[in-house]
Design a protein that fits this description.
Length: 252
């Protein structure tokens, strides 16, 4: 489903590209019940052909329809168009970044005409935007992750709401603070709170995560972060072990 059928099961993870490694991790997530979970992905379209990007979009859409929330840091225009909500950071990188240029549905961002992302979308509107998803029955009226006054790294007092149960894209020029907002603020705060619920004995075996420089983050559910780097896997890890198909092969 993710376009990875060409990978041999014994191929070492160290030989995979960043996009391949991340999709291998995503493959495992697609086989499990993810209702209520939050997925944060770092440029899953990196190095992919537009045809493969379409498969990633379908996979992320499947996660959302199963009840999960998905936050993606990316620049790919096809992926941006498929989003329910868009957060555009900028206007530049480094000291010129860290502020929200525009936010809303992709078509609303284009209509507002602010920032480089709006111009890029307007210049290539050959494909349609995502169809609005209908709210599920018995869904709470307020379902959002709220970030108030984030100042981590180059973020300049950023406040925003990230709707849950939607596909949300965080975009903008390189260095504008996209990964900082998604990973160093939202994910870090969610993990830090989760660790606080464990016993002191359990916490001593887990890495401590510092509190991000933010006034408040609310509404963060149990979160899963899929980053591009492959360093977390062991030296003996392969495509088969990471996707856990190796266990079934042993049984067979």
């Amino acid at each position: 489903a993710l376009g990875l059928g060409y990978l041999p099961l014994g191929q070492p993870l160290s030989t995979l590209s960043g996009g391949e490694a991340q999709r291998v991790k995503l493959a495992r997530a697609l086989t499990e019940k993810q209702n209520g979970a939050l997925f944060i992905l770092d440029e899953p379209s990196a190095g992919l052909h537009p045809q493969d990007v379409g498969k990633v979009v379908q996979a992320l859409d499947g996660l959302v329809r199963s009840g999960a929330s998905v936050v993606v840091v990316d620049h790919d225009l096809d992926l941006i168009r498929a989003a329910d909500w868009l957060i555009d950071l900028g206007p530049g990188g480094g000291k010129n970044g860290g502020t929200i240029v525009a936010k809303g549905r992709p078509e609303d961002v284009v209509r507002a005409g602010k920032g480089a992302t709006a111009k890029a979308l307007a210049a290539s509107r050959s494909r349609s935007f995502a169809e609005p998803r209908k709210a599920k029955e018995n869904e709470p009226e307020t379902r959002a992750i709220v970030v108030e006054h984030a100042r981590e790294h180059n973020l300049r007092d950023v406040s925003c709401e990230i709707p849950r149960g939607k596909l949300v894209i965080v975009t903008g020029p390189s260095g504008s603070g996209k990964s900082t907002l998604a990973f160093d603020v939202v994910f870090a705060e969610g993990q830090r709170r989760f660790l606080e619920t464990l016993t002191p004995y359990a916490r001593q075996f887990l890495p401590t995560m510092p509190r991000p420089d933010v006034d408040r983050v609310t509404g963060v559910p149990p979160s899963i972060a899929l980053k591009q780097r492959t360093a977390r896997a062991g030296g003996a890890s392969t495509v088969a072990t990471v996707t856990e198909v190796a266990h079934y092969l042993r049984l067979l």
